[in-house]
Amino acid sequence: NGSEVLMSLLLNKTLHVSMVAFAFEVLSDCYKMTALSFPTVLNRLDISAFDLCKVIEPLVRSEVNLNLPKEVKKHLYAIEETSLECLSWKPGSTFYKHMIEARSPTGKGDSEGDNSSSAFQKVNPLPKCFGRPETRIADSNSSTSSSPSEKTLEEFFKKVAKLCTFRLIDLCNRLERDCMFKKKNGDLVDSAMILEQVVSIVEYVIYEQTRLLYNRHVDQIILSSLYGVCKVNQIGVTFRDIVHHYSKQTQCKQEV
Hints:
By secondary structure, the protein is mainly alpha-helical. It has helices at residues 2-10, 13-30, 40-45, 49-60, 70-85, 94-103, 133-139, 148-177, 191-208, 218-232, 239-246; strands at residues 110-112, 122-124.
């Protein structure tokens, strides 16, 4: 009932700390407090970007009436985007706790090794995948209701897939403008077909091979998937061409 839901919220320490982090991020951006530049607040409060992002969208909605300045909203959305693209996938992220609770047979897991950001650090047992939305809809006919972790992850994966699609549309448009989608014999290839194939592969990785994103950046999956589709379709686009146009995108990161 309502009182039980309210009590669970009051006892949720992670939620409270996330709200504090949200408040600090708003203040640091408003007053240009460089000493608290992102992700300093997360490190000081010892919380994951995944947890902070769970409160950003609900609090910046217009119906909440926080009346946040446009620049502050831009800062908060940038934090959410950074979490979706890389921070949530890092070792130690609470994303993996939710994955284990939602998909592990036992609902439990242990971290092996130290707390470093090594790509070889294991989360045991780390579920292979979350599963496609249509598969979960079919399973929802059973009497078992979705857990809180599952609902949280459903929203998270939708945002990741949407972010990847937007970036792929822009990248494919850049390549098309330079007439890059040509076969070796000079024939042009429909960019819409290329985009559809790459989006399908990226979504397959996100939902069916989720473990591949562990300690990686989603742009790595985007670039490699686009290159693979170009090779399969015998299009004369080199990986250097793709990286060159990727470097012109606003979110480009050197480490990718």
